[in-house]
From TrEMBL:
Recorded superkingdom: Bacteria
Residues spanning the membrane: none
InterPro entries: Universal_stress_UspA, UspA
Domain spans labelled UspA: 189-278
Pfam families recorded: Usp (PF00582)
Full protein name: Nucleotide-binding universal stress protein, UspA family
Gene3D superfamilies noted in UniProt: 3.40.50.12370
Source taxonomy: Bacteria, Pseudomonadati, Pseudomonadota, Alphaproteobacteria, Hyphomicrobiales
Length: 279
């Protein structure tokens, strides 16, 4: 069951899209909606020590300006939240990007779903580290929205990208409330030449039987490998006129931090529908 969800807000015009999706999902599940406004302090541009306390004064002034700008944004967001029909509240976190990374991971752990705009696919990447923190350190699902996409009233058709992995299983478990509500769920697996055919097929059918026992209306689709996995999955979503794609979030570590893997990043760059991911 989904009882609460949190939506990431940054004070930009993109917040309206994220909030619209958050409000729509909260209404469908009758869940509490929390807005998390992250006000970043650009500490990487702080001046070096110039002596005589000059740099300290400049830094203090920069931080004060950032807080006051955050106050204006928070006031505007609170006015927007007063118009929401959902049970809702707004929270705010100020700090460096490192501070915000920790805060996002914490709040993701304390809610059933985190809603974010996807980090790729626009003129420049946005909030990549926060997205990675939610996916790889949050422990719950992340609902990632394409830019400028209106919130669907219902998520009737869902495509589930299946691989016999921990990440896929976690994504399916997190997505179960969505799958039970959907009119049609397509369990799609891109065939891997390196996997044994019969074993891979049986694993796919076993997961389909598991979902059926949960009352999910399931259709199995085996997709012969022709090109990139991301393109094949997105083509399947287009063929099915899907409202949601569910998949595991894959990545690898660099300097002890998780970063998105190639297929995951490609999906988040190209998908024209919301993607529910879990790691």
């Amino acid at each position: 069951m989904v009882k609460d969800m949190i939506v990431h807000l940054d004070g930009s015009e993109r917040d309206d899209i994220a909030l619209a999706h958050g409000e729509a999902l909260a209404a469908q599940f009758e869940a509490r909606l929390v807005g998390l406004y992250t006000n970043v302090f650009q500490t990487r541009f702080m001046p070096a020590d110039l002596g005589g306390g000059t740099s300290a004064d400049i830094i203090a002034d920069i931080l004060d300006q950032a807080r006051r700008a955050g106050d204006d944004t928070e006031h505007r967001l609170r006015q927007r939240f007063e118009l929401l029909r959902s049970d809702c509240e707004l929270r705010r976190v100020d700090g460096s990007e490192g501070d915000l990374v920790q805060a996002v991971a914490h709040y993701a752990r304390c809610h059933d779903i985190m809603i974010m705009l996807r980090p790729y696919g626009e003129d420049r990447p946005r909030w990549v580290q926060l997205t990675e923190a939610a996916l790889f350190a949050g422990g719950r699902s992340v609902y990632l929205v394409p830019p400028a996409m209106p919130a669907p009233s219902r998520l009737d058709t869902v495509v589930v990208a299946w691989r016999d992995t921990f990440e896929s299983t976690r994504a399916i478990a997190e997505a179960m409330p969505f799958l039970k509500r959907a009119a049609s769920v397509i369990l799609a697996a891109v065939e891997d030449p390196e996997e044994e055919g019969e074993d891979a097929a049986e694993g796919l059918l076993e997961m389909a039987r598991h979902l059926e026992r949960h009352g999910v209306q399931i259709t199995v689709r085996r997709l012969p490998r022709r090109g990139k996995i991301s393109e094949m999955l997105l083509n399947e979503c287009q063929r099915a006129a899907a409202d949601l794609l569910v998949m595991g979030a894959y990545g690898h570590t660099r300097f002890r931090e998780w970063i998105l893997g190639g297929t995951t990043r490609s999906i988040l760059s190209q998908a024209s529908l919301p993607v529910l991911m879990a790691h």
